[in-house]
Write a structure and sequence with these properties.
This protein is 14% helix and 31% strand. The protein has 200 residues and is α+β, with helices and mostly antiparallel strands. It has one domain: Electron Transport, Fmn-binding Protein, Chain A (Pnp Oxidase, Chain A), CATH 2.30.110.10. Strand 6 (115-116) and strand 7 form a beta hairpin. It is globular. The protein binds flavin mononucleotide (FMN). Flavin mononucleotide (FMN) binds at residues 26, 39, 41-45, 59-61, 69-71, 95, 98, 100, 180.
């Protein structure tokens, strides 16, 4: 099958791209509004893009043309956010935080989560998340109804035993992030892995 996303099939872009470009990691982003209310929401249009300096990006679509989601709105005002990563134990809570709540109502309370103060920025991280990346906004590109938020990662927090203390390599027996799969509600577990050495 073939689709023209610039023309007659444009309306299928989300279904096709979000369904096919998988698995995707999930950025579970915490931000704070000007009153200090903590907002949490998942975004799977997300990845890291470099390490010198360490950068990541994620893409909150606008609610309506020109009206950002709370996450993007808070980042525009404060320039700070935490990307928490999601494992199987956090999956249901993560999903709950994607609910549309009125501005100023915290998803953290709704999902019965806890927060831990960040070290370098004001928004806290999610205590239950296995990994958290403290970020400052580098820039946000507005492309149509998408916003692409680029963040500089200043601090990495990992739960006990996820990394080997000597090598800092990930222990695959302990770290089980979930991935976003087919639209509308597919996810994958990551407990069936294999190794492949790169060619010389
Ligand atoms: C697993 C998952 C991934 C999601 N990924 C995105 C995404 O990449 N971009 C987006 O705009 N919304 C995404 N959403 C929907 C947002 O989480 C949802 O609109 C949320 O209410 C936004 O919250 P906010 O207004 O507090 O920022 C995703 C939802 C789920 C459950």
């Amino acid at each position: 099958m073939e689709f023209d996303l610039t023309g007659e099939h444009a309306r299928y872009a989300y279904r096709l791209l979000a369904g096919l470009v998988t698995p995707r990691p999930i950025a579970w982003v915490t931000t704070q509004d000007e009153d200090g209310c903590v907002n949490a929401a998942p975004f799977s249009f997300f990845n890291v893009f470099g390490t010198r300096p360490p950068i990541l990006g994620f893409a909150p679509g606008d609610k309506e043309p020109g009206i950002p989601k709370d996450t993007a709105r808070n980042i525009r005002r404060t320039g700070e956010f935490v990307v928490n990563l999601v494992d199987e134990a956090c999956a249901e809570a993560m999903n709950l935080t994607s609910s549309e709540l009125e501005h100023g109502v915290s998803e953290i309370e709704l999902a019965k989560l806890h927060t831990t103060a960040s070290v370098s920025i004001a928004p806290p991280r999610i205590t239950e998340a296995p990994v958290a990346l403290e970020c400052t906004e580098w820039s946000t590109m507005e492309i149509g109804r998408n916003r692409l938020v680029i963040g500089l990662i200043s601090r990495v927090h990992t739960a006990e035993n996820i990394l080997d203390p000597e090598t800092l390599l990930v222990n695959p027996e302990v770290f089980h992030p979930i991935g976003r799969m087919e639209v509308p509600s597919g996810y994958c577990r990551t407990n069936d892995r294999f190794q492949m050495k790169r060619p010389e």
